[in-house]
Write a structure and sequence with these properties.
With about 170 residues, this protein is α/β, with parallel strands linked by helices. About 35% of the residues lie in helices and about 35% in strands. The chain has six helices and eight strands. The protein has a five-stranded mixed beta sheet. Strands 6-7-8 form a three-stranded antiparallel beta sheet, with helices on one face. Helix 2 packs parallel to helix 4. The N and C termini lie far apart (about 40 Å).
């Protein structure tokens, strides 16, 4: 088994896959939590204290779930996207997360975030030509697709959380 954890700006997802190398794989479990780690980031440039606490609590739950499933830390691949990548205190959060859970978090570049969105789209559809638009909480990625191959890739700070806070302030 292997687990992938996506620490997005709005929601966090843990997906467990069972596989036979070179033969087959299937999704066998999944946890999802709306963490909103990027809440307030646009105004302050930093992750908020309450958002970080929600994040650490959720990541601790994910780690305990993986341990209960028999997954060891090397089998759990944790990636973070725009909110943690862009936050002035993102490195501090990552250090706290690793200290509390033992999980190492890889921060994806904007290009890699777009690339993984493209890979997911072309591997779950019959798309041959077009554009993959992947909108998250903190950013939007566009990838040109021609004959199922990635072309130009761009990332914009236009995620759902960021845009909502900018143009629809308040509760």
């Amino acid at each position: 088994q292997v687990a992938v954890v996506d620490l997005g700006s709005n929601s966090w997802r843990l997906v467990v896959f069972t596989y036979a190398p070179g033969s087959w794989w299937k999704r066998t479990d999944e946890l999802y939590e709306t963490v909103r780690i990027g809440a307030g980031l646009g105004a302050s440039g930093r992750l908020g204290f309450e958002a970080m606490q929600r994040g650490l609590e959720t990541l601790s739950v994910f780690e305990r779930f993986c341990r209960a499933e028999g997954l060891r830390a090397p089998d759990v691949h944790v990636v973070a996207t725009s909110a943690i990548r862009e936050a002035g205190n993102g490195a501090r959060f990552l250090a706290d997360a690793e200290s509390e859970t033992g999980l190492k978090v890889e921060v994806l570049s904007a290009h890699d975030e777009a690339w993984f969105g493209y890979v997911a789209a072309v591997n779950t559809t019959t798309m041959r030509d077009g554009v993959v638009l992947d909108i998250g909480g903190g950013s939007l990625q566009l990838t040109e697709v021609s004959d199922r191959q990635a072309g130009a890739i761009a990332s914009f700070s236009l995620g759902a959380v960021r845009v909502t806070e900018e143009f629809l302030p308040g509760s």
